[in-house]
Amino acid sequence: MDADNQQERLDALWISGFTDGEGCFHISINNIKGMSLGWQVLPEFRIVQHEKDESVLHDIKNYFGFGNVKVNRTDKHGTRKEFRVRGLDNLNKLIEFFLKYPLNTSKKKDFEIFSKVIQSMNNKEHLTKEGLDSIAILISKMNRKPRLKYLESSETIRQK
Hints:
The chain is an alpha+beta fold. The protein has helices at 3-22, 54-64, 88-100, 107-122, 129-139, 149-153, 155-158, and strands spanning 23-31, 39-50, 68-75, 78-85.
């Protein structure tokens, strides 16, 4: 292995570890009247940092070659910025990355669910009522306190 490949590998492992501590795999289902089923599945990957550490977000963006760095929120503690990735093409690339450089914390479970949802979307399953219900059930198992208006309003799930 030459020095360039070794440095690239170290960077990838660092990004994976940093994601274990600071990253978030998130999927929302939003009520949008213009969509064929009235709902949109919106997956995204985020890493949030205080603005004083914004440069690390740009470094991660440059590593991947996609995503955006934007303001996440501003409050009495200052401004937080986020590296955010949306869009199936780029999210599929992120999934390949984390399969090659696995997570080691509880975020690994969220990543596995996230990957299943992205695969369902790749297969266009989110465009059917059954697929949307299946995705909603999967994402209800992600993160700490999921809030899913879709599940709360889905007649299919309520009638079980």
